[in-house]
Specification:
The protein is α+β, with helices and mostly antiparallel strands and 715 residues long. Among the domains are: 102 residues, ATPase, nucleotide binding domain (Nucleotidyltransferase, domain 5); 114 residues, Dna Ligase, domain 1 (2-Layer Sandwich). Helix content is 33%, strand content 26%. Helix 3 packs across helix 8, helix 5 crosses helix 6 and helix 11 packs across helix 12. 50% of the residues are buried.
C-alpha cells in the first residue's frame, strides 16, 4: 500500500499526517528535537513502523511521497545563528541594510533601536560599478575590487556571499561577472545573485532578500543533505518535497538554491488546508488559525485564495519573495505567564517549548504556561494528554502558577489560571484582527477554522471576543499544517520589472517577459517530474496610479497579454483599487503606471483522498465518556459537564455546550453559548445556539449535495 506523509516540524511538537491510497489517515505527534529536527522526524517514522509491526526499512519502502515543512531557516534568522555571510554591493550603498527605506519603524519611540543587519559593516564590500535604471552601463565593473573582496572573504572564513548591485534587475551582467570570479576562486561558497533570486525594482527589498537567502542557504543545504542521506539510508525511494512560504512545495534541490522560500514555510500549510475543509460546506472564504505549542498563526482566505504579500518580514528583516500573508504571534500551549514591571499579567511571547516544556510535563520546567492553566481549569485530562502518552503533573502546574502568578498578584490559584486563559485568548483575538479588521474585512462574516493541538480549547472564547458565529474544527486539526502540505501543489514564482505608463506600454517587451518566465517555470517543473498537462500559469501585474508609492497586484489572463487588451486591464485595476482602498481615480482619468510583471507557475500534484461518513442520528451518546469538573469562563465557576470521545463521533451527531470533546491529539472546549455538529468528514462545526437553524442546515444540506465529492475534487 502506498503512503503519503505530511510533516510539520514545530517548536514543541513534530506533526505527521499519514495518508493511504484508500483515503484513510492517521495522525502522529512526537516531541520536536531542536538540536537536530531530523531526529524528531525519524522518531515519527519509527513510531509509524512500530504500529504496523514492521521494520522502519520495510515501512519506508511503501512511502511514495513525503512533504516536509521545516523551521530550520526560520530559527536561524530569529536567533541570528545563520552562517558568516559577506555582501558585494555597489559603491556608496554598503549601508543600505541599516538605512533600509529611510523610514523609522516607530516614529514616537525615543528608545527605538534599529534592527541588527545579518551582515556586519566590515563584511559588506563596495564594488566600483554602476548601471542606470534601463540597465545601461554608467561605470564598468572594476574586477580588481571583486578580487580584493575575495581575498578578504577568504581570510574571514566566509561560508556564503550575497551579490546585489544597483539596477541589476535590468541588466545582470555585472553580478554575473562578479559571480564567475567568486565561483572560480571559492568553488564551495554558497552564492546568491539578486538578479537571479529577485529581479525586481526596490533596492532595499532586493538586497535584504538576497542576504537572507545566503545567510540561511548553507544551513538548509546541510539539513536537507543530512535528511536525504538518512532517508536514503533506510531505503526511501519516493519523492521528497519541501514546503514554501508561498503555499506551494518545491524539490529539495531547488529549495537549497532558493533557501529563503522556506522562511516561515511551516504555517503556510494551514491556509491550504483551510480551503479544503471549508469548501465542502460551501464556503469560499474563511479565517484559519493554528495554535501550537509555541506560536499562533492567523490567515485570511477570500474566494478560495489565501492573501499573498511581497512585503513580508521576519525578525524585522524584509523578505520580498511572495509569501502567504500570515500573522504569527507568540501565543501557544507553551507560552509562559509572567508579571510585567507595571504589575500586569502577560502571556508569551516566550515559550517553554518542547524542552523543558510546561511545568505539568514534568520534564524540568518550572514556569507557568498556558497548558498548565488549561489543566487546572479542567480543559485537559491529566491522564489522557496525547492519548495518555504524556501524563501531566497537576501538582507541578499548581506550584508554578502559585509561585509565579498567584502569589505575586495576591490572588487565588484558579483566579490566576483563569486570568492566564483570558489574556492569551485576547492576544489571539488581536492576531485575528490583524489579518481581518486592519485589511478592511469583518471577521464576523468568515467561518473561523480552528487548528493546532491547543487551538480548539480556546476557540469559543476567541469567537465570543470577536462575535464570530461559526467555527470549523477539522478532523486533523492537531496536525493542520501537515495536512495542508499534502494538499499543496508545486509552485514557483517569477517577477520582472517593466516600469512604464500603461497607455504607452511596449507590448512586444510585455509579452516577451511573460514568455521568458513561462519558459523558466516550465523547465523547473519538468526537472521536478511534472507533466506538461499538469502545469498551470497564473499571470498578474503590479500597477499604481502615477506618483503613488504602493502598487496593487491585478490578475490578468493570457488573452489580455497576447492581444494587449489594456482597456480590460485598466478596468481591473480601478476595480481592485476600489476594493482595497474604497476609492478609485477612474473618473478623473489619473494615469496608471505598470511596475512589475508576475507569473506563478503551478505543477498540480496528486492529492490525498478523504473518506466520507454515512449520516447517522443526532444522538452522541455512543461517544460519551464521563463527566468532568470544568471552569466556565462566561459563568466564572466550575461545573460538571459531559466529556465525549471525538474519535467516536459520527456524521450528524450533535453536542450542546457546555461539553468537552477529547481526541488523542487535541481537546475541544465547547462553552455554554455553542453547539457542535459532526460533519460528513469527521470535522466539527461549532455554532452559536442562537443561530442554530442557519448553520446546522448548512452542514447537513451542503454535505448531502456533495455526496459524491471528496477532498481531492474540492482542492
Amino acid at each position: 500500500m502506498g503512503y503519503k506523509i505530511g510533516i510539520d516540524v514545530g517548536g514543541t511538537f513534530t506533526d505527521f499526517l499519514l495518508a493511504r491510497q484508500d483515503g484513510t489517515t492517521e495522525i502522529y505527534k512526537v516531541l520536536s528535537t531542536p538540536e537536530d529536527p531530523s531526529i524528531g522526524l525519524m522518531n515519527g517514522l519509527e513510531e509509524m513502523a512500530r504500529d504496523r509491526k514492521i521494520s522502519l526499512q520495510e515501512f519506508i519502502k511503501e512511502v511514495e511521497t513525503i512533504v516536509h515543512g521545516t523551521t530550520v531557516t526560520t530559527n536561524a534568522v530569529l536567533t541570528y545563528r545563520g552562517v558568516k555571510t559577506g555582501l558585494l554591493t555597489t559603491k556608496g550603498l554598503r549601508d543600505t541594510l541599516e538605512m533600509r527605506r529611510g523610514v523609522r519603524e516607530e516614529q514616537y519611540n525615543n528608545r527605538f533601536t534599529n534592527v541588527e543587519p545579518l551582515v556586519p559593516r566590515h563584511l559588506r564590500h563596495p564594488i566600483e560599478e554602476r548601471l542606470d535604471y534601463k540597465g545601461e552601463i554608467i561605470t564598468p565593473i572594476q574586477m580588481s575590487d571583486v578580487e580584493d573582496s575575495i581575498k578578504r572573504f577568504r581570510e574571514e572564513g566566509m561560508e556564503a556571499i550575497a551579490i546585489c548591485f544597483m539596477n541589476s534587475f535590468a541588466n545582470a551582467d555585472h553580478e554575473e561577472s562578479a559571480a564567475k570570479m567568486i565561483r572560480e576562486r571559492m568553488p564551495n561558497i554558497y552564492l546568491t545573485l539578486s538578479s537571479t533570486l529577485l529581479p525586481s525594482i526596490r533596492f532595499y527589498d532586493r538586497i535584504s532578500t538576497t542576504v537572507l537567502n545566503s545567510y540561511v542557504g548553507p544551513i538548509l543545504r546541510s539539513y536537507l543533505t543530512s535528511l536525504t542521506r538518512r532517508l536514503k539510508g533506510i531505503g526511501f525511494e519516493g519523492v521528497l518535497l519541501i514546503m514554501q512560504s508561498n503555499g506551494g512545495v518545491i524539490s529539495p534541490e531547488n529549495a537549497i538554491e532558493k533557501a529563503a522560500v522556506t522562511l516561515l514555510s511551516g504555517p503556510a500549510g494551514g491556509p491550504v488546508a483551510g480551503i479544503a475543509y471549508t469548501a465542502v460546506q460551501g464556503y469560499d472564504s474563511c479565517i484559519t488559525v493554528d495554535m501550537g505549542g509555541t506560536s499562533f498563526d492567523a490567515a485570511l482566505i477570500k474566494n478560495r485564495s489565501p492573501l499573498v504579500t511581497t512585503e513580508g518580514e521576519i525578525n524585522r528583516l524584509r523578505l520580498a519573495l511572495p509569501m502567504l500573508n500570515i500573522v504569527t504571534i507568540g501565543a501557544g500551549g507553551g507560552s509562559i505567564g509572567w508579571i510585567d514591571e507595571g504589575g500586569l499579567l502577560r502571556m508569551g511571547p516566550q515559550s517553554a517549548g518542547a524542552k523543558p516544556g510546561p511545568a505539568c510535563y514534568d520534564l524540568g520546567g518550572d514556569l507557568p504556561t498556558c497548558t498548565d492553566a488549561d489543566l487546572l481549569l479542567g480543559y485537559l485530562d491529566e491522564n489522557y494528554f496525547a492519548g495518555g502518552r504524556i501524563p501531566l503533573n497537576r501538582e507541578k502546574a499548581l506550584r508554578a502558577i502559585k509561585t509565579h502568578i498567584a502569589d505575586k498578584m495576591k490572588m487565588d490559584i484558579i483566579e490566576a489560571a483563569s486570568g492566564m486563559y483570558h489574556v492569551i485568548n485576547v492576544n489571539m483575538a488581536a492576531g485575528i484582527r490583524e489579518v481581518s479588521v486592519k485589511r478592511g474585512e469583518d471577521p464576523r462574516e468568515f467561518p473561523l477554522v480552528v487548528a493546532g493541538g491547543a487551538g480548539p480549547n480556546h476557540a469559543c472564547m476567541i469567537a465570543l471576543e470577536l462575535e464570530i458565529p461559526v467555527m470549523i474544527i477539522p478532523k486533523e486539526s492537531s496536525i493542520f499544517c501537515a495536512a495542508g502540505m499534502l494538499m499543496s501543489n508545486l509552485q514557483h514564482d517569477f517577477v520582472r520589472t517593466l516600469v512604464s505608463p500603461l497607455d504607452k506600454l511596449d507590448l512586444k517587451r510585455f509579452r516577451q517577459l511573460f514568455e521568458e518566465m513561462e519558459s523558466e517555470g516550465a523547465t523547473l517543473l519538468k526537472s521536478e517530474h511534472i507533466a506538461k498537462d499538469r502545469i498551470q500559469f497564473i499571470y498578474s501585474i503590479d500597477m499604481r496610479y502615477v506618483k503613488q508609492y504602493h502598487e496593487v497586484n491585478v490578475l490578468t489572463s493570457p488573452e489580455e497579454i497576447l492581444r494587449g487588451k489594456l482597456q480590460s486591464i485598466t478596468k481591473k485595476f480601478h476595480s481592485e483599487h476600489n476594493r482595497l482602498y474604497g476609492y478609485s481615480l477612474e473618473e478623473i482619468g489619473t494615469p496608471i503606471e505598470v511596475i512589475n510583471l508576475r507569473l506563478t507557475c503551478i505543477g498540480k500534484t496528486e492529492k490525498p483522498r478523504f473518506l466520507k461518513m454515512k449520516y447517522t442520528a443526532q444522538d452522541p451518546s455512543k461517544a460519551f465518556k464521563k463527566k468532568r469538573k470544568v471552569y466556565l469562563p462566561t459563568k466564572k465557576k466550575f461545573q460538571m459537564i459531559p466529556v465525549f470521545d471525538g474519535d467516536r463521533l459520527r456524521y450528524g451527531n450533535k453536542i450542546e455546550g457546555p461539553a468537552i470533546i477529547e481526541q488523542v491529539n487535541t481537546t475541544t472546549f465547547v462553552s455554554p453559548e455553542f453547539s457542535v455538529l459532526c460533519d460528513a468528514y469527521g470535522s466539527f462545526t461549532m455554532y452559536l445556539k442562537s443561530r442554530e437553524k442557519e448553520f446546522k442546515g448548512r452542514v447537513i444540506q451542503r454535505a448531502q449535495k456533495r455526496e459524491t465529492q471528496n477532498y481531492k475534487e474540492v482542492v
